[in-house]
């Protein structure tokens, strides 16, 4: 038989090598067609007397599969919603049936009577790893990475993942891995018992064959009578040690915001009490239940579908040819410039890194030496790869070296005059078609572009710190920025593997505008006398990764002070709440500048002691009785104030595509991922419900919660953002 996506070669020993290699795709994914073909292949292998065993691998270099095609899951949501309107019961039954397809398929493979080995040659995620777990043995290439990341997009491994992992390793470890969606290196998967052997990449197939020759049972341990669970039965002295701790682990990891994580715990708990076939049914039931939650719908849409579309350049002007960037220039080898140099060199670009003094430029390059060294120590790259990466960075004071750069990024002091001077010097030496970008965090791009001879070639590329870790960049269009500058900026962002959002010029652009709201709300709570610990906890329970006071310490309290003063100077005294100003000014005058000073809203004792909220904070304001404070309302205030600001940026045309507000908020400042982002938070509850919530908060806390006219109008018309600002229509819209 021949297949569209697979080839099968059977050798003289009766070992069938099944190679998965989807034509026209860079990665293998599960589509209806691949699933049907796998189904037929299992039948073929089981029936063919000439075949004793099978190896399944991928023909794609460095990758086995990216997993389920989440776009098709996203489409399933839409179909499901439409079907629900007609006949709820039938719709749910249909969803249950469809969502169990892969699970049934892997069980069929597992019980087909002949041994299958998964030869994992590279990235193997989600459904692909579940296929490997269902196989009778697993060999992984040393460079391979694998995992079940479903929980990160709001769902759970629904094709046996929860059941097989928890039967192959200890319960606590299994739950950690499943609830965090951890990506594992081949070595760690081996240590956890999820992989049988790890070999050098080029020995993969030989190793798999050798294993088969040595004998691999076609019956899985859990289908044998005497199978024992790794952590013992649930109701046993061993189980009694494990399970009581699980509730606190779950709370700690999720703050009870993620239905998928809760369902994972239930799947494992209930599944371990049952034989495999029934356990898989239980998993399928929870999978179907989770698929129906708002959280799953919003997370898949934002964190998978939109994130991918934006990373691939949804906003890139289509008619500009691909830029062939080889070398970039960076001016300013300080905190940010050094970080940008590293990610650019890691992305394969040559970097000319310039500062005023050679020592400063060298110090900037030393940052890359430190990070590359760390990767070598962790075994993530080889010594020679690290050497090549560093070899691509030239630290210098010589502006003449910029002649070869197709893009120059300025990251000097946040000072208009210094930037103007640098811009002029660079403009005099770069190629006539080179693009110039500023990494400014506060100065409007249009005004900076005025100091450059050709504002069409001027753009903002705003990075977040630490640059090597943060996945987002904001690309900012000045009034005169041209399409080619945008295309080059987006090509660059893609080369360094970050996700861009494209925004129009505005004070604070997108992310910082929203983050300032977060911190301001915390100032308001402090002034009201909400205990500081309650403020931080409310934010974390709302799903934020870092409390607003801790975040303020990280970004520096004196920076907040500076921003307040600049805003007052530019926009008038009354735009900053005097109580906020006094609070921040007092902190700065006391030297409480944040983590860098060892004291801010928190005190930072010597390690290993942990940071602690500064006790003096409580004495600055009369404290309310915690019992009298509505904790849920504190959580809402944080989420609503940032979502409102995001809605304002759309109303003002700063952000034109709701996907960018969602991705910008999750990737830029960790906005409660289970909501799908600031705009999906509004859409998820419905605009009318959100406006009602704003009205309630406005009545209690003032005008800052007043919904803007756009939201009121949308609420009246029953519109949501993803309809009114349809991403498919806005995707190529630039300004
Ligand atoms: P920094 O003070 O760490 O680095 C600035 C560097 O620029 C210094 O090494 C300095 O020697 C160099 N420099 C100054 N004048 C120069 C000149 N004329 N020619 C060459 N080099 C010169 O500052 P930073 O935190 O890296 O910030 C740089 C820019 O990035 C600022 O515009 C800032 O607003 C922006 N930014 C900062 C952050 C952040 O978190 N720090 C985040 C996003 C954007």
TrEMBL record:
Q: In which pathway does it act?
A: Lipid metabolism; fatty acid beta-oxidation
Keywords (alphabetical) are: Fatty acid metabolism, Lipid degradation, Lipid metabolism, Lyase, Multifunctional enzyme, NAD, Oxidoreductase
Q: Which organism is it from?
A: Jiella flava
Cite the PANTHER family for this sequence.
TRIFUNCTIONAL ENZYME SUBUNIT ALPHA, TRIFUNCTIONAL ENZYME SUBUNIT ALPHA, MITOCHONDRIAL
| Stated name of the protein | enoyl-CoA hydratase
Q: Where does the 3-hydroxyacyl-CoA dehydrogenase C-terminal domain start and stop, copy by copy?
A: 508-604
Its top-level enzyme class, in one word, is lyase
| Residues passing through the membrane, by range | none
Question: Any one Gene Ontology biological process term?
Answer: fatty acid beta-oxidation
Per the similarity annotation, which family is this?
Answer: In the N-terminal section; belongs to the enoyl-CoA hydratase/isomerase family. Belongs to the enoyl-CoA hydratase/isomerase family.
Could you tell me which InterPro entries the record lists for this protein? 3-OHacyl-CoA_DH_NAD-bd (IPR006176), 3HC_DH_C (IPR006108), 6-PGluconate_DH-like_C_sf (IPR008927), ClpP/crotonase-like_dom_sf (IPR029045), Enoyl-CoA_hyd/isom_CS (IPR018376), Enoyl-CoA_hydra/iso (IPR001753), FA_oxidation_alpha_subunit (IPR050136), NAD(P)-bd_dom_sf (IPR036291)
- MF (Gene Ontology): enoyl-CoA hydratase activity; long-chain (3S)-3-hydroxyacyl-CoA dehydrogenase (NAD+) activity; NAD+ binding
Which catalytic reaction applies to this protein?
a (3S)-3-hydroxyacyl-CoA + NAD(+) = a 3-oxoacyl-CoA + NADH + H(+)
Stated EC number for the protein is 4.2.1.17
Q: Which residues form the 3-hydroxyacyl-CoA dehydrogenase NAD binding domain?
A: 327-505
């Amino acid at each position: 038989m021949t297949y569209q996506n697979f080839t099968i070669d059977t050798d003289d020993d009766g070992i069938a090598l099944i190679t998965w290699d989807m034509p026209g795709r860079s990665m293998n994914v599960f589509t209806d067609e691949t699933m049907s073909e796998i189904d037929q292949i299992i039948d073929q292998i089981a029936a063919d007397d000439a075949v004793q065993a099978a190896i399944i691998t991928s023909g794609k270099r460095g990758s086995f599969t990216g997993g389920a095609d989440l776009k098709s899951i996203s489409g399933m949501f839409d179909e499901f919603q439409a079907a629900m309107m007609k006949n709820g019961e039938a719709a749910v039954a249909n969803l249950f049936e469809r969502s169990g397809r892969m699970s049934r398929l892997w069980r069929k493979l597992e019980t087909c009577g002949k041994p299958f080995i998964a030869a994992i040659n590279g990235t193997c995620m989600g459904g692909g790893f579940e296929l490997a777990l269902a196989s009778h043995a697993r060999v992984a290439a040393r460079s391979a990475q694998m995992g079940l990341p479903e929980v990160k997009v709001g769902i759970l491994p629904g094709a046996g993942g929860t059941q097989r992992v928890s039967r192959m390793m200890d319960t606590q470890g299994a739950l950690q891995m499943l609830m965090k969606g951890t990506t594992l290196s081949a070595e760690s998967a081996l240590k956890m018992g999820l992989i049988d052997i790890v070999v050098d990449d080029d020995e993969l197939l030989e190793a798999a064959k050798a294993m088969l020759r040595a004998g691999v049972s076609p019956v899985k341990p859990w289908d044998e009578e005497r199978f024992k669970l790794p952590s013992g039965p649930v109701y046993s002295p061993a189980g009694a040690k494990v399970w009581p701790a699980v509730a606190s682990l779950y709370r700690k990891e999720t703050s009870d915001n993620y239905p998928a994580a809760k369902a994972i715990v239930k799947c494992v708990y209930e599944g371990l009490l049952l034989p495999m076939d029934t356990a898989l049914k239980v998993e399928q039931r929870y999978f179907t239940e989770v698929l129906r939650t708002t959280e799953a719908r919003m997370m898949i849409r934002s964190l998978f579908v939109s994130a991918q579309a934006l990373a691939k350049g949804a906003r890139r002007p289509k008619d500009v040819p691909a830029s062939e960037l080889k070398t970039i220039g960076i001016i300013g080898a300080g905190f940010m410039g050094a970080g940008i140099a590293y990610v650019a060199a890691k992305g394969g670009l040559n970097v000319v890194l310039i500062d005023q003094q050679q020592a400063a430029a060298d110090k900037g390059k030393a940052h890359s030496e430190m990070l590359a060294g760390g990767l070598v120590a962790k075994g993530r790259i080889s010594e020679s790869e690290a050497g090549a990466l560093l070899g691509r960075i030239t630290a210098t004071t010589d502006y003449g070296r910029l002649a070869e750069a197709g893009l120059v990024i300025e990251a000097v002091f946040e000072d208009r005059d210094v930037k103007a001077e640098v811009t002029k010097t660079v403009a005099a030496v770069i190629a006539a078609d080179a693009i110039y970008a500023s990494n400014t965090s506060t100065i409007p791009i249009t005004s900076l572009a005025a100091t450059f001879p050709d504002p069409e070639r001027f753009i903002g590329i705003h990075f977040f710190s630490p640059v090597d870790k943060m996945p987002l960049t904001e690309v900012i269009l000045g009034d005169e920025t041209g399409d080619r500058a945008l295309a080059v900026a987006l090509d660059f962002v893609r080369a360094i593997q970050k996700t861009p959002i494209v925004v129009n010029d505005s004070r604070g652009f997108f992310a910082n505008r929203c983050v300032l709201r977060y911190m301001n709300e915390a100032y308001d709570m402090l002034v009201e006398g909400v205990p500081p610990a309650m403020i931080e906890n409310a934010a974390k329970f709302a799903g934020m990764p870092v409390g607003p006071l801790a975040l303020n310490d990280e970004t520096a309290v004196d920076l907040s002070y500076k921003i307040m003063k600049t805003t007052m100077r530019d926009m008038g005294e009354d735009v900053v709440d005097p109580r906020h100003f006094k609070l921040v000014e007092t902190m700065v005058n006391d030297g409480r500048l944040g983590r860098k000073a060892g004291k801010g809203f928190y005190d930072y004792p010597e390690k290993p002691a942990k940071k602690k909220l500064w006790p003096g904070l409580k004495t600055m304001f009369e404290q309310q009785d915690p019992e009298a404070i509505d904790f849920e309302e504190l959580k809402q205030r944080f989420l609503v104030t940032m979502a409102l600001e995001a809605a304002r940026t759309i109303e003002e045309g700063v952000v034109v595509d709701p996907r960018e507000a969602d991705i910008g908020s999750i990737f830029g400042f960790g906005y409660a991922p289970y909501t799908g982002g600031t705009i999906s938070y509004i859409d998820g509850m419905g605009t009318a419900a959100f406006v009602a919530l704003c009205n309630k908060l406005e009545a209690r806390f003032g005008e800052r919660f007043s919904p803007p006219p756009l939201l009121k109008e949308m609420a009246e018309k029953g519109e949501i953002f993803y309809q009114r600002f349809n991403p498919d229509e806005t995707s190529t819209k630039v300004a």
